[in-house]
Structures are given as C-alpha cells and as structure tokens.
Amino acid sequence: MTARLADIAAQAGVSEATVSRVLNEKPSVASATRASVLAALDALGYERPLRLRRRGTGLVGLITPELENPIFPALAQVIGQALTQQGYAPVLATQTPGGPTEDELTEMLVERGVAGVIVVSGLHADTTADVRRYARLRAGGMPFVLVDGYAPQVRAPFISPDDRAAMELAVTHLAALGHHRIGLALGPARFVPVQRKIEGFLRGMRQRLDLAPEACVELIEHSL
Questions:
Q1: What ranges do the domains of the chain cover?
Q2: 8 Å CB contact between 221 and 184
Q3: Which of 38, 177, 205, 207 is the most exposed place for a label (fewest CB within 10 A)?
Q4: Over the stretch 53-107, which tens digit does the pLDDT of each residue have?
Q5: pTM reported for the whole predicted model
C-alpha cells in the first residue's frame, strides 16, 4: 500500500512537510515527532521504507578477529556485558584463517536483522584496506561502531585505547626498574594501533631514556 502524506500527517497531527522529512530521514525532526509519524504509518497499515523498519530483535553483531589473541576474548566479554546491561544480546562472529571475511560476516548479521554491528580491529584498522565498504553499510541504514583503529574518511563512531600513552607508560615503568635496552615486538606496521604504539614507544625512549630509538625497535610481522 502506497503511503499518502496527507493521511499520515492527519493521523500523527503534524504537517505533510514533517512527514516527508521523517520518511527521508532528515535530521531536523524531534525524536518524539519522528516516533509519532512512524506510529501513524504503522497504524494506517502502510509499510515502512526499508531503512525505517524496526530492528526489534535486540541483537547486536560483534565481529572480532581470531580468539587466540587474549585481548579479543577480553574485549568481547566487556562489550557483551555492556550490551546486555542495555537490553541487547550480542551475536559473536569470529574471523578464522580460511573462514568468512569481515564483509561476509557483516552481510550475514545484517540479513538476520541485527540492530547494529560492532567491528573490533577490522579492516578500518588496516591503512591499506578499502574502507568504502563502511560507506555502503551506512547507506543501508545499519548503525555500526568501529573499535581499535581509525580511518578519517569513514563517518562512524570510533573507540580505541590510547596506544601512544600506553607505550610511554610501559617505557617509563621499565626505565624506573633500571632497564635501558628495551625492545618492541609488534605486528604488521600497516595497522593503525601498531603505528600508534611505535610513536609512543619512540617518544618514550627519547623522553625517558634519551636514547636513539632506532637502535631499540624491531618489528616482527605475522602473517594474517
């Protein structure tokens, strides 16, 4: 059934222009007004546009890399606890060597009607990856949050620890114990967290020990 703006406006007690703004997801509409228009749409038996359909399952997809690295199970546990406290149930999707890709896992979760997707250390953290996939996800109306990484061209909430400060604290602690020959082992340098850690390490070595950091850094790359 095709929605008529006049009918929806009369049912919701708003103008046709307001109905149009809601249906086109314009930002200049109060949340209460938006809810009234959507309720009117439902009451009149009209089908909501796909991007405005309810995501009522209460499920949130959580995509992580392999779980052999202990940091990822720890993050999954904390995120899962936070979601359940807000009334959501996490759906864990883990990448494994030779298994589904991040794109495939995202598509699977979207098809199952999750309310949103959280990606931990995904392709947004790889400076060589094509991040246009996130623009497509956003265009589809799926809310998502990206953890542990940053891509300035992606419009999304990003959450990351302060890797630079963490490395400076680590160097400060070791220097306080009397250590001066401090090495750093990391993964591939194309990843944003790795780059941040290198910056923090080099700064810590210069400021705390006044050492030439070039003699102290060795990167160990692991195949992914």
A1: 5-52, 59-159, 163-215
A2: no
A3: 177
A4: 555 457 899 999 988 889 899 999 999 998 888 778 899 999 988 889 999 999 9
A5: 0.68
